[in-house]
Amino acid sequence: MEARMRLDREFRIGDIDRRLFGSFIEHLGRAVYGGIFEPGHPTAEGQGFRQDVLSFVRELGIPLVRYPGGNFVCSFNWEDSVGPVEKRPTRLDLAWRSVEPNLFGLNEFMAWTKAAGARAMMALNLGTRGVDAAANLVEYCNHPGGTFWSDLRKRHGLEAPHGIKLWCLGNEMDGSWQVGQKTAGEYGRLACETAKAMRRVDPSIELVACGSSFPAMPSFPDWEATVLGHCYEEADYLSLHAYYGNKADDLPEYLADSMGMGAFIESAAATCDFVKAKKRSPKTMMLSFDEWNVWFHTSAEDAHADPWERGPSLLEEAYTFEDALVVGCLAIELLKHADRVKIACLAQLVNVLAPISTVTGGTAWRQTIYWPFLHACAFSCGSSLDLRIDSPSYESRRYGAVPFLHAAAALDEEGGRLTVFAVNRAVEEGLGVDIGLAGFEGWRLVEVLEFAGFDPKAGNSAAAPDAVCPRSLPGGSLVEGGHLRVELAPLSWNVLRIAAPGS
Length: 503
Ligand code: AHR
Prior knowledge:
By secondary structure, the chain is an alpha/beta fold. Helices cover 25% and strands 27% of the residues. It has helices spanning 51-60, 106-116, 131-142, 148-155, 184-201, 222-231, 251-255, 257-279, 299-302, 321-336, 370-379; strands at residues 2-8, 12-15, 22-24, 44-45, 49-50, 64-67, 91-93, 98-100, 119-123, 166-169, 206-209, 237-244, 286-294, 341-346, 356-358, 364-366, 383-385, 388-390, 393-396, 400-403, 405-412, 417-424, 431-438, 444-451, 471-474, 483-488, 492-499.
């Protein structure tokens, strides 16, 4: 099969925010306990942070980590998680029906993000709590000193404020599963008043209002319209969440899921713009896709998990090669919407729906989805280019014609780097692609990272940690007469690294 792709140095979708490929750590299952934090583990250092896990996190180069939930946050008292560890209470976590010992909390997380080279995105409890606890938390984290909460932080050994800039106003507040679920009107008012109080403490913060929990919620997009009707001027971002899966074991249909993500982003943006028009506001609301991933392998068994365990094995998806291709397609979709989606978090990071898995007391390894996520983190710099794609397609039940070729491109002018991310969705056929590049004469294809050739159901494990991983192929060809030609293997994720002359 043959496809054509056209890109022009001057035709840009928008700047790619560094926070577009962030991640997420929730107090859920073994994400924290036995994941990032395990005192006594052979690689644990200092505060009990597993160094084997940290070295993978650093390799990913994640810019941002959302914390501490998720559903967990909606019945969490942040005060339980600070101060001397021996005085912290053990609590029932109502979201996941686990026991939370509070051995790892807010200040440990901030130390961990520092060690990981990432920034924090802090979520607030707007389920069981509200304005007062939120404002106090901002004071504890960001106020320099001389007040009750900021001095308490100092007494906890942290002289300098954390300076946390990005905050989520609750989590999935429309969900019936949420402790403290709200109607859109109740939540919109609460988000507005909480935002006002938090900003009085620290006017420099940015705030994310909760959108719908997933696009199939019957209340989407009325929820967004009502919520933003109350807090459009107070919020900086609207959140989107979506998980995908191959329950029907239909690979072509599964690979089309990124089209659903694109449609969701566009509907959410349109709803924001509707509110903008109603309010005659000069402000354009940006989007925070702060939970996205594949989630379906473990749903059935998790429903029968025993309650009230500490660090239970929950949501421990064993990802396959086909899941990695879908994650690649979703990453491409985020890049294609870089003008509106400024923040996104792969949910999650370690053990729970995760690119990194561990054995408690044992080894850590990279799952299949680690690889496209790593590439997206590493090479999504500068501007997202507006590609024109002409590709043969196949019919999907839900989305109609789905092009076999799915691609996005990032141009880092300063670094002289152009990166094309491309998936060939065809299960059996290779795809020859003629790439027309306007404004890149003399640039060179320096490397192709190719993830291909595996059984769709193959994955990595503690016993075979590197069974399914990409390979690096030398580039060599020059952009001549405005063209490059590449061959994409069937079912493949490809990263074409193109460099300016002399760089
Ligand atoms: O990421 C797992 C869960 O999925 C989160 O806690 C929740 O926000 C979402 O429903």
